[in-house]
Protein backbone atom coordinates (compact mmCIF):
# COMPACT_ATOMS: atom_id res chain seq x y z
CA UNK A 1 0.00 0.00 0.00
CA UNK A 2 1.36 3.37 -0.95
CA UNK A 3 1.94 5.92 1.78
CA UNK A 4 1.31 9.67 1.43
CA UNK A 5 3.85 11.99 2.93
CA UNK A 6 5.73 15.19 2.26
CA UNK A 7 7.10 15.25 -1.23
CA UNK A 8 4.82 12.46 -2.49
CA UNK A 9 1.88 12.83 -4.88
CA UNK A 10 -1.52 11.19 -4.92
CA UNK A 11 -2.34 8.63 -7.60
CA UNK A 12 -4.39 9.91 -10.55
CA UNK A 13 -7.30 7.61 -9.80
CA UNK A 14 -7.56 8.85 -6.27
CA UNK A 15 -7.46 12.53 -7.34
CA UNK A 16 -10.23 12.02 -9.87
CA UNK A 17 -12.41 10.37 -7.27
CA UNK A 18 -11.87 13.23 -4.80
CA UNK A 19 -12.56 15.87 -7.47
CA UNK A 20 -15.76 14.21 -8.61
CA UNK A 21 -16.92 13.87 -5.01
CA UNK A 22 -16.27 17.55 -4.26
CA UNK A 23 -18.25 18.91 -7.24
CA UNK A 24 -21.74 18.55 -5.64
CA UNK A 25 -20.45 20.20 -2.46
CA UNK A 26 -18.96 23.07 -4.45
CA UNK A 27 -22.21 23.59 -6.32
CA UNK A 28 -24.09 23.64 -3.02
CA UNK A 29 -21.72 26.25 -1.56
CA UNK A 30 -21.95 28.44 -4.64
CA UNK A 31 -25.72 28.16 -4.64
CA UNK A 32 -25.91 29.11 -0.94
CA UNK A 33 -23.57 32.06 -1.46
CA UNK A 34 -25.66 33.30 -4.36
CA UNK A 35 -28.88 33.06 -2.39
CA UNK A 36 -27.29 34.88 0.55
CA UNK A 37 -26.08 37.65 -1.74
CA UNK A 38 -29.54 38.04 -3.24
CA UNK A 39 -31.09 38.11 0.22
CA UNK A 40 -28.65 40.78 1.38
CA UNK A 41 -29.34 42.91 -1.68
CA UNK A 42 -33.10 42.65 -1.21
CA UNK A 43 -32.78 43.43 2.51
CA UNK A 44 -30.58 46.45 1.78
CA UNK A 45 -33.03 47.73 -0.82
CA UNK A 46 -35.94 47.27 1.58
CA UNK A 47 -34.14 49.22 4.31
CA UNK A 48 -33.41 52.08 1.90
CA UNK A 49 -37.05 52.25 0.83
CA UNK A 50 -38.21 52.18 4.47
CA UNK A 51 -35.81 54.94 5.53
CA UNK A 52 -36.82 57.13 2.59
CA UNK A 53 -40.50 56.66 3.37
CA UNK A 54 -39.91 57.40 7.05
CA UNK A 55 -37.90 60.55 6.33
CA UNK A 56 -40.50 61.84 3.88
CA UNK A 57 -43.25 61.17 6.40
CA UNK A 58 -41.36 63.04 9.12
CA UNK A 59 -40.65 65.97 6.83
CA UNK A 60 -44.29 66.26 5.80
CA UNK A 61 -45.69 65.96 9.32
CA UNK A 62 -45.89 69.18 11.39
CA UNK A 63 -43.33 69.50 14.19
CA UNK A 64 -44.65 68.60 17.63
CA UNK A 65 -44.64 71.45 20.15
CA UNK A 66 -41.94 71.16 22.78
CA UNK A 67 -44.18 71.95 25.73
CA UNK A 68 -46.35 68.89 25.06
CA UNK A 69 -43.72 66.75 26.73
CA UNK A 70 -43.49 68.89 29.86
CA UNK A 71 -45.55 67.92 32.91
CA UNK A 72 -47.62 70.27 35.02
CA UNK A 73 -46.22 71.27 38.38
CA UNK A 74 -47.59 68.48 40.56
CA UNK A 75 -46.45 69.48 44.05
CA UNK A 76 -46.35 72.54 46.30
CA UNK A 77 -43.03 74.35 46.29
CA UNK A 78 -41.29 75.68 49.37
CA UNK A 79 -40.37 74.58 52.88
CA UNK A 80 -42.66 73.37 55.65
CA UNK A 81 -41.18 75.48 58.41
CA UNK A 82 -42.22 79.12 58.57
CA UNK A 83 -39.22 81.36 57.78
CA UNK A 84 -37.72 83.58 60.42
CA UNK A 85 -35.02 86.22 60.59
CA UNK A 86 -33.75 85.01 63.96
CA UNK A 87 -30.25 83.58 63.93
CA UNK A 88 -30.06 80.13 65.49
CA UNK A 89 -27.64 79.67 68.38
CA UNK A 90 -24.60 77.47 67.81
CA UNK A 91 -25.92 74.62 69.95
CA UNK A 92 -29.15 74.42 67.96
CA UNK A 93 -27.30 74.50 64.65
CA UNK A 94 -25.05 71.64 65.78
CA UNK A 95 -28.12 69.68 66.86
CA UNK A 96 -29.72 70.20 63.45
CA UNK A 97 -26.51 69.17 61.75
CA UNK A 98 -26.33 65.91 63.72
CA UNK A 99 -29.96 65.03 63.03
CA UNK A 100 -30.17 61.61 61.35
CA UNK A 101 -32.87 62.59 58.86
CA UNK A 102 -30.95 65.72 57.90
CA UNK A 103 -27.77 63.70 57.38
CA UNK A 104 -29.57 61.17 55.17
CA UNK A 105 -31.15 63.95 53.12
CA UNK A 106 -27.74 65.58 52.73
CA UNK A 107 -26.24 62.28 51.62
CA UNK A 108 -28.96 61.75 49.00
CA UNK A 109 -28.42 65.27 47.74
CA UNK A 110 -24.65 64.79 47.44
CA UNK A 111 -25.09 61.51 45.56
CA UNK A 112 -27.50 63.20 43.17
CA UNK A 113 -25.19 66.15 42.57
CA UNK A 114 -22.16 63.91 42.08
CA UNK A 115 -23.75 62.44 38.97
CA UNK A 116 -24.04 65.84 37.27
CA UNK A 117 -21.36 67.28 35.04
CA UNK A 118 -19.96 70.80 35.23
CA UNK A 119 -21.98 71.94 32.20
CA UNK A 120 -25.13 70.05 33.16
CA UNK A 121 -27.35 73.12 33.61
CA UNK A 122 -26.07 74.72 30.41
CA UNK A 123 -26.64 71.55 28.41
CA UNK A 124 -30.17 71.21 29.78
CA UNK A 125 -31.09 74.61 28.31
CA UNK A 126 -30.90 73.03 24.85
CA UNK A 127 -34.15 71.19 25.53
CA UNK A 128 -37.20 73.42 26.01
CA UNK A 129 -34.85 76.23 27.04
CA UNK A 130 -34.25 74.52 30.38
CA UNK A 131 -37.94 74.54 31.25
CA UNK A 132 -38.85 71.36 33.14
CA UNK A 133 -42.48 71.91 34.19
CA UNK A 134 -45.57 73.92 33.29
CA UNK A 135 -47.05 76.40 35.75
CA UNK A 136 -50.37 75.43 37.37
CA UNK A 137 -53.56 76.93 36.00
CA UNK A 138 -55.00 77.57 39.46
CA UNK A 139 -53.70 78.71 42.82
CA UNK A 140 -52.19 76.19 45.19
CA UNK A 141 -54.57 75.79 48.12
CA UNK A 142 -53.56 77.76 51.19
CA UNK A 143 -53.68 74.72 53.47
CA UNK A 144 -51.49 72.73 51.04
CA UNK A 145 -49.02 75.46 50.11
CA UNK A 146 -45.55 75.74 51.64
CA UNK A 147 -43.45 78.68 52.80
CA UNK A 148 -40.88 80.69 50.93
CA UNK A 149 -37.54 80.25 52.73
CA UNK A 150 -35.82 83.35 54.01
CA UNK A 151 -33.47 84.81 51.38
CA UNK A 152 -31.28 87.74 52.30
CA UNK A 153 -29.30 90.19 50.19
CA UNK A 154 -28.33 93.81 49.70
CA UNK A 155 -30.72 96.30 48.17
CA UNK A 156 -29.75 97.82 44.84
CA UNK A 157 -31.17 101.15 46.00
CA UNK A 158 -28.87 101.88 48.93
CA UNK A 159 -26.92 98.68 49.67
CA UNK A 160 -28.97 98.04 52.80
CA UNK A 161 -29.26 94.48 54.07
CA UNK A 162 -32.77 93.08 53.49
CA UNK A 163 -34.55 89.73 53.54
CA UNK A 164 -37.64 88.31 51.89
CA UNK A 165 -39.35 87.42 55.17
CA UNK A 166 -39.57 91.06 56.18
CA UNK A 167 -40.23 92.41 52.69
CA UNK A 168 -42.97 90.00 51.61
CA UNK A 169 -44.99 89.71 54.82
CA UNK A 170 -48.38 91.40 54.55
CA UNK A 171 -48.19 91.94 50.78
CA UNK A 172 -48.84 90.05 47.56
CA UNK A 173 -45.47 89.63 45.91
CA UNK A 174 -44.29 88.41 42.55
CA UNK A 175 -40.80 87.18 43.36
CA UNK A 176 -38.33 86.51 40.55
CA UNK A 177 -35.11 84.51 40.88
CA UNK A 178 -32.56 85.58 38.28
CA UNK A 179 -28.84 85.13 37.77
CA UNK A 180 -28.20 85.28 34.03
CA UNK A 181 -29.41 87.30 31.07
CA UNK A 182 -31.40 84.28 29.92
CA UNK A 183 -33.20 84.15 33.26
CA UNK A 184 -34.03 87.87 33.02
CA UNK A 185 -35.70 87.24 29.66
CA UNK A 186 -37.63 84.35 31.20
CA UNK A 187 -38.93 86.56 34.01
CA UNK A 188 -40.00 89.30 31.60
CA UNK A 189 -42.02 86.77 29.61
CA UNK A 190 -44.06 86.11 32.78
CA UNK A 191 -44.42 89.62 34.19
CA UNK A 192 -44.85 91.81 31.10
CA UNK A 193 -48.61 92.05 31.72
CA UNK A 194 -49.01 91.40 35.45
CA UNK A 195 -46.55 93.94 36.81
CA UNK A 196 -47.77 97.01 34.88
CA UNK A 197 -51.34 96.19 35.84
CA UNK A 198 -50.76 95.99 39.61
CA UNK A 199 -47.73 98.26 40.09
CA UNK A 200 -49.90 101.07 41.48
CA UNK A 201 -51.56 98.84 44.10
CA UNK A 202 -50.03 99.48 47.56
CA UNK A 203 -50.56 95.84 48.53
CA UNK A 204 -48.48 94.58 45.60
CA UNK A 205 -44.74 94.46 44.99
CA UNK A 206 -42.33 92.98 42.47
CA UNK A 207 -39.25 91.48 44.16
CA UNK A 208 -36.21 90.49 42.11
CA UNK A 209 -33.34 88.49 43.58
CA UNK A 210 -30.11 88.47 41.61
CA UNK A 211 -28.69 85.23 42.97
CA UNK A 212 -24.95 84.74 42.52
CA UNK A 213 -23.81 81.77 44.59
CA UNK A 214 -20.36 81.89 43.05
CA UNK A 215 -18.23 84.19 45.19
CA UNK A 216 -16.33 85.71 42.27
CA UNK A 217 -19.50 86.44 40.30
CA UNK A 218 -21.10 87.91 43.39
CA UNK A 219 -18.17 90.30 43.85
CA UNK A 220 -18.33 91.32 40.19
CA UNK A 221 -22.06 92.06 40.44
CA UNK A 222 -21.46 94.21 43.52
CA UNK A 223 -18.62 96.06 41.80
CA UNK A 224 -20.80 96.83 38.79
CA UNK A 225 -23.92 97.56 40.82
CA UNK A 226 -23.77 101.20 39.72
CA UNK A 227 -24.17 100.22 36.08
CA UNK A 228 -26.88 97.80 37.15
CA UNK A 229 -28.82 100.71 38.65
CA UNK A 230 -28.92 102.28 35.22
CA UNK A 231 -30.66 99.20 33.83
CA UNK A 232 -33.17 98.58 36.63
CA UNK A 233 -36.00 101.17 36.82
CA UNK A 234 -35.86 103.47 39.83
CA UNK A 235 -39.14 102.24 41.31
CA UNK A 236 -37.87 98.63 41.33
CA UNK A 237 -34.48 99.25 42.95
CA UNK A 238 -35.68 99.06 46.60
CA UNK A 239 -37.02 95.54 45.99
CA UNK A 240 -34.07 94.39 43.88
CA UNK A 241 -31.72 92.28 46.02
CA UNK A 242 -28.23 91.06 45.21
CA UNK A 243 -27.68 87.81 47.10
CA UNK A 244 -24.85 85.30 47.41
CA UNK A 245 -26.78 83.01 49.75
CA UNK A 246 -26.06 79.32 49.36
CA UNK A 247 -29.22 77.76 47.90
CA UNK A 248 -27.82 74.28 47.35
CA UNK A 249 -30.28 72.56 49.68
CA UNK A 250 -33.20 74.83 48.78
CA UNK A 251 -33.19 74.41 45.01
CA UNK A 252 -35.07 71.11 44.98
CA UNK A 253 -37.78 72.27 47.43
CA UNK A 254 -38.26 75.39 45.28
CA UNK A 255 -38.20 73.47 41.99
CA UNK A 256 -35.15 75.47 40.86
CA UNK A 257 -33.37 72.60 39.15
CA UNK A 258 -31.39 74.75 36.69
CA UNK A 259 -29.24 77.71 37.72
CA UNK A 260 -29.42 79.22 34.22
CA UNK A 261 -33.22 79.43 34.16
CA UNK A 262 -35.45 82.15 35.59
CA UNK A 263 -38.14 81.28 38.15
CA UNK A 264 -41.20 83.26 39.22
CA UNK A 265 -43.13 82.74 42.46
CA UNK A 266 -46.41 84.28 43.58
CA UNK A 267 -46.24 84.85 47.35
CA UNK A 268 -49.26 85.65 49.51
CA UNK A 269 -49.30 87.88 52.58
CA UNK A 270 -48.42 84.92 54.84
CA UNK A 271 -45.19 84.10 52.95
CA UNK A 272 -46.69 81.05 51.23
CA UNK A 273 -45.96 80.13 47.61
CA UNK A 274 -49.34 80.00 45.87
CA UNK A 275 -48.15 79.77 42.25
CA UNK A 276 -44.88 79.27 40.38
CA UNK A 277 -43.48 79.34 36.86
CA UNK A 278 -40.16 78.54 35.23
CA UNK A 279 -38.30 79.14 32.00
CA UNK A 280 -39.83 80.92 29.04
CA UNK A 281 -43.51 81.58 29.72
CA UNK A 282 -46.28 80.54 27.40
CA UNK A 283 -49.20 82.88 26.80
CA UNK A 284 -51.39 80.80 29.10
CA UNK A 285 -48.81 80.93 31.89
CA UNK A 286 -48.45 84.72 31.67
CA UNK A 287 -52.23 85.12 31.75
CA UNK A 288 -52.45 82.69 34.66
CA UNK A 289 -49.96 84.72 36.71
CA UNK A 290 -51.90 87.91 36.02
CA UNK A 291 -55.27 86.43 36.95
CA UNK A 292 -53.96 84.62 40.06
CA UNK A 293 -52.31 87.82 41.29
CA UNK A 294 -55.61 89.64 40.86
CA UNK A 295 -57.39 86.98 42.91
CA UNK A 296 -54.94 87.22 45.81
CA UNK A 297 -55.02 91.02 45.79
CA UNK A 298 -58.81 91.05 45.86
CA UNK A 299 -58.87 88.64 48.80
CA UNK A 300 -56.30 90.68 50.70
CA UNK A 301 -58.20 93.92 50.06
CA UNK A 302 -61.40 92.33 51.37
CA UNK A 303 -59.51 91.06 54.40
CA UNK A 304 -58.11 94.53 55.08
CA UNK A 305 -61.58 96.06 54.78
CA UNK A 306 -63.00 93.59 57.28
CA UNK A 307 -60.16 94.26 59.71
CA UNK A 308 -60.66 98.00 59.33
CA UNK A 309 -64.40 97.68 59.91
CA UNK A 310 -63.88 95.48 62.97
CA UNK A 311 -61.34 97.95 64.37
CA UNK A 312 -63.70 100.89 63.90
CA UNK A 313 -66.52 98.99 65.61
CA UNK A 314 -64.26 98.21 68.57
CA UNK A 315 -63.25 101.86 68.83
CA UNK A 316 -66.90 102.95 68.67
CA UNK A 317 -67.84 100.43 71.37
CA UNK A 318 -64.98 101.57 73.59
CA UNK A 319 -65.95 105.23 73.17
CA UNK A 320 -69.60 104.47 74.02
CA UNK A 321 -68.62 102.60 77.18
CA UNK A 322 -66.36 105.44 78.26
Automatic annotation (TrEMBL):
Which keywords accompany this UniProt record? Coiled coil
The alphabetized list of GO BP terms reads: mitochondrial proton-transporting ATP synthase complex assembly
Q: Name one Pfam family in it.
A: ATP-synt_10
Q: Where is this region: Disordered?
A: 53-83
Q: Could you tell me which InterPro entries the record lists for this protein?
A: ATP10 (IPR007849)
What are the coiled-coil residue ranges?
286-317
* GO cellular component assignments: mitochondrial inner membrane
Its name, as the record gives it, is Mitochondrial ATPase complex subunit ATP10
Which species is this record about?
Agrocybe pediades
